[in-house]
């Protein structure tokens, strides 16, 4: 443990004042040890405290509330990137709450649509088309 | 100076995530203190308003890209206010004759003057008369309660040089108060 002499203690008071919280952390403990057992150190501290008290009486007025409001009004929040925009879009669409039903509906549609097309949308060749094909087949190039 | 336990980091993270509440936290935590710093350095609360406005505009821009680990955010804010205050003092010196600078402190209203203790006014006058570097050292260490290491770093000085500035500042203030018949320890 380091010790402190009265000369150094006096320098400490001259620079940092009487409050141990303002003393350098590395020397605080040694200074307090000296203080605990030295009446002369206590007297030096008492004198230094008088200037501290005078200094502490100068308290500037706090800033007006209007300044606080002005500063808060000027907060520029970061613009959302494309990931944020996509997330917002997804959320606006309903997010995962709608994803399940939408997936089930698309599965059902995928299963039912071919069945319905089999019955209604299969178009058999009509008589005119068969005749046209037969006519082409009768061209001379095809019958050498 | 350990910045890994910077108490401002959660608020900075909120700002990074687009949450204006983080700005509110920083403002509540630092505005009064930084305003007092600028007022004591400039001896003008109107100028301190403008310095704080500039400083926090910079803070809003800096917060989203702040990298933890180098310095505490509050130390950086102190540096910004210190630099902006120095710029203002330099501009004052460039634009005004010396006797006008001494007169340009805020005028108190009669009510304020009546309510203000003589001792406080004397300290204010004494601070105004100190050389700029001594005033900065004293304001940072005594009023802002920065550690000697933080203050020395802000002023770009060794700790020994800071200590010497502080001792001269306190001696000068004591002499100023003595000169006004308000020696520390006299009746308050």
What would you say this structure looks like, in words?
- The complex is a heterodimer of chains A (144) and B (188).
- Chain A is mainly α and 144 residues long.
- The termini of chain A are far apart.
- The mean pLDDT of chain A is 83.
- Chain A has helices spanning 6-16, 25-36, 39-56, 65-73, 82-93, 96-120, 127-137.
- Helix content of chain A is 68%, strand content 0%.
- In chain A, helix 1 (6-16) packs parallel to helix 3 (39-56).
- Chain B is mainly α and 188 residues long.
- Chain B folds into 2 domains: 1-98, Rna Polymerase Sigma Factor, Chain: A (Orthogonal Bundle), CATH 1.10.1740; 114-188, Arc Repressor Mutant, subunit A (Orthogonal Bundle).
- Helix content of chain B is 72%, strand content 0%.
- Chain B contains 10 helices and no strands.
- Chain B has helices at 9-16, 21-42, 45-62, 73-95, 98-103, 110-115, 118-129, 132-143, 148-154, 159-179.
- Chain B is globular, with a radius of gyration of 18 Å.
- The model of chain B has no long low-confidence stretch (mean pLDDT 86).
- Chains A and B meet through helix 1, helix 3 and helix 4 of A and helix 2, helix 3, helix 7, helix 8 and helix 10 of B.
Indicate the topology.
The complex is a heterodimer of chains A (144) and B (188).
Chain A: H1 6-16, H2 25-36, H3 39-56, H4 65-73, H5 82-93, H6 96-120, H7 127-137
Chain B: H1 9-16, H2 21-42, H3 45-62, H4 73-95, H5 98-103, H6 110-115, H7 118-129, H8 132-143, H9 148-154, H10 159-179
Helix pairs in contact in B: 1-2, 2-3, 2-4, 3-4, 7-10, 8-10, 9-10
Task: Fill in the keyword field for this structure.
heterodimer, A: 144 residues, mainly alpha, 7 helices, B: 188 residues, Rna Polymerase Sigma Factor, Chain: A, Arc Repressor Mutant, subunit A
The CA-CA distance between the termini of chain A, in Å, is 121 Å
Class from secondary-structure proportions of chain A: mainly alpha
Helix content of chain B: over 70%
Strand content of chain A: under 5%
At the fourth level of CATH, the homologous superfamily of the largest domain in chain B is: RNA polymerase sigma factor, region 2, helix turn helix motif
Oligomer: heterodimer
Number of strands of chain A: 0
Distance between the termini of chain B: 37 Å
Topology of chain A as a string of helices (H) and strands (E): HHHHHHH
Coarse shape of chain B? globular
| Number of extended strands of chain B | 0
State the largest interface: A-B, 35 and 53 residues
Major β-sheet profile of chain A: none
- Domain module tally of chain B: 2
Element-by-element helix/strand order of chain B? HHHHHHHHHH
Mean pLDDT of chain B: 86
């Amino acid at each position: 443990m380091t010790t402190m002499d009265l000369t150094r203690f006096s320098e400490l008071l001259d620079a940092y004042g009487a409050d141990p919280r303002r003393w350098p952390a590395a020397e605080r403990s040694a200074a307090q040890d000296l203080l605990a057992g030295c009446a002369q150190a206590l007297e030096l501290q008492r004198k230094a405290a008088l200037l501290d008290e005078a200094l502490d009486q100068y308290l500037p007025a706090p800033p007006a509330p209007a300044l606080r409001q002005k500063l808060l009004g000027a907060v520029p929040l970061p613009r959302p990137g494309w990931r944020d925009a996509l997330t917002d879009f997804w959320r606006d669409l309903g997010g995962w709450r709608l994803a399940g039903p939408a997936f089930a509906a698309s599965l059902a549609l995928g299963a039912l649509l071919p069945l319905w097309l089999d019955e209604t949308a299969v178009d058999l060749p009509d008589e005119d088309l068969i005749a046209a094909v037969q006519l082409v087949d009768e061209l001379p190039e095809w019958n050498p | 100076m350990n910045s890994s336990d910077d108490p401002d980091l959660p608020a900075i993270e909120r700002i990074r995530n687009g949450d204006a509440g983080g700005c509110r936290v920083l403002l509540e935590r630092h505005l009064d203190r930084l305003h007092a710093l600028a007022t004591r350095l400039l001896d003008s609360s109107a100028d301190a308003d403008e310095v704080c406005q500039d400083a926090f505009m910079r803070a809003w821009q800096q917060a989203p890209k702040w990298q933890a680990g180098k310095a505490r955010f509050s130390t950086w804010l102190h540096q910004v206010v210190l630099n902006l205050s120095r710029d203002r003092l330099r501009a004052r010196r460039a634009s005004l004759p010396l006797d006008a600078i001494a007169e340009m402190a805020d005028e108190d209203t009669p009510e304020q003057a009546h309510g203000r203790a003589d001792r406080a006014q004397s300290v204010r006058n004494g601070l105004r008369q100190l050389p700029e570097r001594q005033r900065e050292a004293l304001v940072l260490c005594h009023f802002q309660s920065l550690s000697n290491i933080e203050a020395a770093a802000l002023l770009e000085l060794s700790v020994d040089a800071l200590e010497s500035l502080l001792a001269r500042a306190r001696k000068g203030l004591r002499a100023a108060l003595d000169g006004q018949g308000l020696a520390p320890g006299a009746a308050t």
